[in-house]
Design a protein that fits this description.
The protein has about 260 residues and is of the alpha/beta class. The protein contains nine helices and 15 strands. The chain has a nine-stranded mixed beta sheet with strand order 7-6-8-9-5-12-13-14-15, sandwiched between helices. A hairpin with a 7-residue loop joins β13 and β14. α3 crosses α4 and α6 runs parallel beside α8. The longest helix has 22 residues. The chain is globular. It starts with a strand and ends with a strand.
Length: about 260
């Protein structure tokens, strides 16, 4: 829309954008119901997320070291339908084809197809990570069969490169920028984005249960539509706790970690 106004005897053209559109709540609800979801390979985790990983959103899994976050990421790549592809951004040198092979063998899946459909990038600095996210954005835009983008872990390199308290503001600002980019990638291309996150100890917590908290605080929480806390009990027993969901209350499901990925208890 083009309008004109007079200022100091001159005619000034003001351009008003008409790009914003409104939809009825009925249309929004219909779209939500039709939103594609990807199975995680675990019926219990799928149940936790109300049907699996939502395409068009960010799902965050966090937990202590050795709890199985990276193991879950390998499972997600393995059970992805063969007509889809995945991008795996590895910041901790955790990606292993042997893990994929173990899961594929235990589940009777096509190992060659899984490896062919998984594009892996190993990065060692935040600068490399940020460039990798930009490259993933372009790759996903040009290849619509890419349906899964995994970043394992989102916070690891930022924690290493910005360790001081005085650097927290800069660290959060950078993470916020690239989390927003990941969210736009998910929404624009209808891709399921998965990020893993680590925990740190909060000595000011009043309860032992809340002592370990996810790194990144509200920056990661606001960007993630779904947040799942994975806790370790014993050698193989795990509990996945739904911490954030658009409309579901907190609840948990039991799991056992093994060569198939996760076994539903």
């Amino acid at each position: 829309m083009l309008t004109t106004s007079c200022r100091s005897g001159s005619v000034v053209k003001d351009i008003i954008s008409d790009t914003v559109t409104f939809k009825s709540a009925v249309e929004v609800a219909d779209k939500d119901q039709k939103q594609e979801r990807l199975s995680t390979g675990s019926k219990n985790i799928d149940c936790l997320l109300d049907g699996g990983l939502e395409c068009g959103a960010i799902t965050q899994f966090y937990g202590a070291s050795k709890v199985g976050k990276t193991h879950l990421c390998h499972l997600l790549c393995s059970v992805l339908p063969p007509y889809y592809r995945a991008i795996y951004i590895d910041t901790q040198d955790g990606f292993s084809t042997l893990k994929i092979k173990s899961i594929a063998h235990a589940r009777g899946l096509n190992l060659s197809k899984i490896l062919e459909n998984t594009a892996v990038a190993k990065v060692g600095t935040t600068s490399d990570l940020e460039q990798c996210i930009k490259s993933a954005k372009s790759k996903i835009k040009s290849e619509p069969n890419i349906k899964l983008l995994i970043l394992d872990s989102m916070t690891h390199l930022y924690k290493l490169e910005y360790p001081e308290r005085s650097q927290i503001s800069e660290r959060q600002s950078k993470m916020n920028k690239y989390l927003h980019m990941l969210l736009r990638i998910a929404q624009t291309n209808n891709v399921a984005v998965v990020i893993t996150n680590q925990v740190h100890s909060n000595p000011q917590s009043y309860s032992e249960a809340d002592r370990l908290q996810p790194i990144g605080g509200n920056v990661l929480s606001y960007s993630s539509k779904y947040v799942v806390d994975i806790k370790k009990y014993g050698i193989v027993n795990r509990i996945a706790i739904l911490e954030k969901h658009p409309y579901r209350p907190h609840f948990s499901v039991p799991l056992i970690i093994d060569e198939t990925g996760f076994v539903d208890c």
